[in-house]
Specification:
heterodimer; A: about 350 residues; mainly alpha; two-stranded antiparallel ribbon; 14 helices; 2 strands; globular; B: about 300 residues; ABC transporter involved in vitamin B12 uptake, BtuC; about 70% helix
């Protein structure tokens, strides 16, 4: 008989081993899925994980790693702060969109003036936009006790409609021959989030992500507020007796994750994407949830997880064009990874014992 | 703007149809939550049901078989959630999110060769002469079987929860799983069954969208209905008949904004399309003050040793 025994302390070794195990299991089951779809499983897995870094055209794909990884890490860092405290912001996708809209709107307002001040202003606007969008569920939760999961998610759909409205109306390119979408910020030097070092994919978003990682690491391990976040997540009652103000913590966690998601959106719209358009958002806000868990809600882990997720995006694109693997297969692959992670977490918190139980 | 283009009788009939997917998903989730489990994967189960129902209906030519397949598809997917939360003791919020992300991907994968196909028509119930009664006919008797099935499920859920032993046990498990366990009830088994019922209902609701409301398959076509259903359970204070009321309210708003779009009201389409989500938020705010009705063990992991 198999039974579970709660560990007095979560196992450290297992905490590090489970993400790796989950990735391996996902590769095996993902390979099986690809085989069902009639593709060579080994080739598909190799294309996804090997080709982008070591393949023939790696020089072209490697920069993509930073371009796709930066928004994932930025968003996931913010989400992880909240998840640690039991505050579930799952509307990062909406905050990402609103950040992009605000950033782009500020940039476009100055068009075609050239000034070194425009880009910093756009960064500020993007951060504020994402922050404000996340403060809606935050304030409603603090004031009325409304569920932040549902409100933040509803606001994703509202933000998507807002994005459609902006790209068809307010921010539409007046010289765009009637096509939906804004002016391309890549062609507007003052607002362009260009590569800092050519051919590396290194742009300001990557810098911001690194700063966010360091900031979150110091916050969680060295600062009183980080301690309050951890205690609230692990023992809410103890936190309250210890003098943690739950309302303020909710506003901080939601606000911070919104701010970082907004920044991610702003760096994306002014750089790799270039313009506000109806299909601007590609689900980074949701994938970042997987990244946060895969990184064990730990800032350094999130960097590794973000890069791995970026790899599956790039490898997925390659597999799509070379092997004809459907785009949705990668989505399933990423979902599978989250499943295995959650299931394997059992090993961190419990010991699996085989044999009959002694009567307690 | 031409509001006279909106026929009130047809509008009300369409509102009832529009509320059916929300109603089905919400009553399923209500049972799950009354058993003490918070399944945030409703959206994923709905979209999976939508695609399963669509594929089977197109291939078999029978919507009835399609709806059965949709319910089964939703239930099978929900088993994954049951495994994660009941066996692997994973966090319910995270597992529900995983289910939604996975379901959205899986459905897109399954449905990719079905985009743009028109499914066989689902017949309305042959209530013949009754449906010809002016005004009342189209509103009350002019629907397909699933609309009535939804109402039957609501009534049955209410009756089972209120009057039967099975309902009492289910509520006991949801209110205090330790006490229920001490009394000898199989907490995990009961919860797993509740989760499967929720999955089946969500699957039916999803298939209603892909087979009758739209009827077509597009990726991500449930567009947040599953999340609105989750909000609806809170709105309903975990009471079956209030789910009906809430579903009509949300379905009504969805349908009304579609009709207003059609009538060419001066409000831009995007802002009308936002309205169901904004109304959901407003309703949540108004009703969140009273949480006393929530099942006592909602969202808590059960392990017999603790």
């Amino acid at each position: 008989m198999i039974r579970l025994e709660a560990r007095p302390q979560p196992s450290q070794a297992m905490a590090y081993a489970t993400p790796v195990l989950a990735v391996v299991l996902t590769m095996i089951f993902g390979g099986a899925l690809f085989a069902v779809l009639g593709k060579d499983p080994v080739a598909a897995i190799a294309t996804i994980f090997w080709e982008p870094i070591f393949g023939e055209f790696a020089f072209f794909y490697r920069p993509q790693l930073l371009i796709k990884g930066a928004p994932l890490v930025l968003i996931a860092i913010g989400l992880a702060l909240g998840f640690r405290a039991g505050i579930w912001n799952i509307g990062a996708e909406g905050q990402y969109i609103v950040g992009a809209i605000c950033g782009a709107a500020v940039g476009l307002a100055f068009y075609p003036t050239e000034s070194a001040l425009i880009f910093p202003l756009m960064v500020l606007a993007g951060a504020l936009g994402g922050w404000a969008w996340a403060m809606i569920p935050g304030l409603l939760k603090v004031k009325f006790g409304t569920n932040e999961i549902l409100v933040s998610l509803m606001l994703v759909y509202v933000a998507e409609q807002l994005l459609a409205s902006m790209s068809l109306g307010f921010l539409k390119n007046p010289e765009g021959f009637g096509f939906p979408g804004s002016r391309n910020l890549q062609q507007y030097p003052s607002a362009h989030n260009a590569e800092l070092i050519a051919e590396t994919g290194m742009h300001w978003g990557v810098v911001a992500a690194l700063i966010a990682v360091i900031f979150a690491y110091v916050l969680l391990s060295r600062h009183r507020l980080g301690f309050a976040i951890r205690v609230t997540g692990e023992a809410p009652r103890a936190a309250r007796f210890g003098g943690v103000n739950p309302g303020r913590l909710i506003l901080f966690c939601l606000g911070m994750s919104g701010l970082l998601a907004g920044l991610a959106g702003m760096f994306e719209v002014s750089g790799p994407s270039g313009q506000i358009s109806i299909d601007f958002n590609v689900g980074y806000g949701f994938t970042a949830i997987i990244v946060a868990f895969l990184g064990r809600l730990n800032p350094l882990g999130i960097v590794a997880a973000g890069l791995l997720m970026a790899l599956t995006y790039i490898g997925g694109d390659i597999a799509q064009s070379q092997l004809g693997l459907p785009a949705a297969a990668i989505q399933v692959f990423q979902g599978m990874l989250l499943f295995f992670l959650l299931a394997l977490d059992l090993l961190t918190n419990y010991r699996v014992r085989i044999g009959t139980a002694e009567v307690a | 703007m031409d509001l006279s283009a909106i026929n009130p009788v047809l509008l009300i009939a369409a509102m009832i149809a529009a509320s059916t997917p929300i109603l089905l998903a919400a009553i399923g989730e209500l049972v799950v939550e009354r058993a003490g489990v918070l399944n945030l994967g409703v959206e994923g189960m709905m979209i999976t049901g939508a695609v399963c129902g669509f594929i089977i209906t197109v291939n078999s030519g029978s919507p009835t078989v399609g709806f059965i397949a949709a319910a089964m598809g939703g239930a099978v997917l929900s088993l994954l959630f049951a495994f994660l939360t009941q066996v692997a003791l994973a966090n319910q919020v995270a597992s529900g999110l995983a289910l939604t992300l996975f379901g959205l991907g899986l459905s897109a994968l399954m449905g990719q060769s079905y985009v743009g196909i028109k499914p066989p028509r689902t017949e309305t119930t042959p209530l013949g002469p009754l449906a010809d009664i002016p005004v009342i006919g189209p509103i009350v008797f002019g629907h397909d079987l699933i609309v009535y099935l939804g109402l039957v499920i609501i009534a049955a859920t209410w009756a089972v929860l209120k009057f039967t032993r099975a309902g009492l046990i289910l509520r006991a498990v949801g209110e205090n799983h330790d006490a229920a366990h001490a009394l000898g009830y199989k907490v995990k088994r009961i919860r797993t069954l509740a989760i499967m019922f929720g999955g089946a209902c969500a699957g039916l609701g999803g298939a209603y969208i892909s087979l009758i409301r739209v009827p077509q398959w597009t990726e991500g076509m449930t567009a947040g209905v599953g999340w609105i259903a989750l909000a609806l359970v809170v709105f309903a204070s975990w009471k079956p008949w209030r789910v009906l009321l809430g579903a009509y309210l949300f379905g009504g708003i969805t349908q009304l904004q579609l009709n207003l779009q059609g009538a060419g009201v001066a409000i831009p389409v995007e802002y009308l399309a936002m309205s169901p989500y904004i109304v959901t938020i407003i309703v949540l705010v108004i009703l969140s003050a009273d949480k006393s009705r929530a099942p006592g063990s909602l969202g808590r992991t059960f392990h017999a040793s603790s």
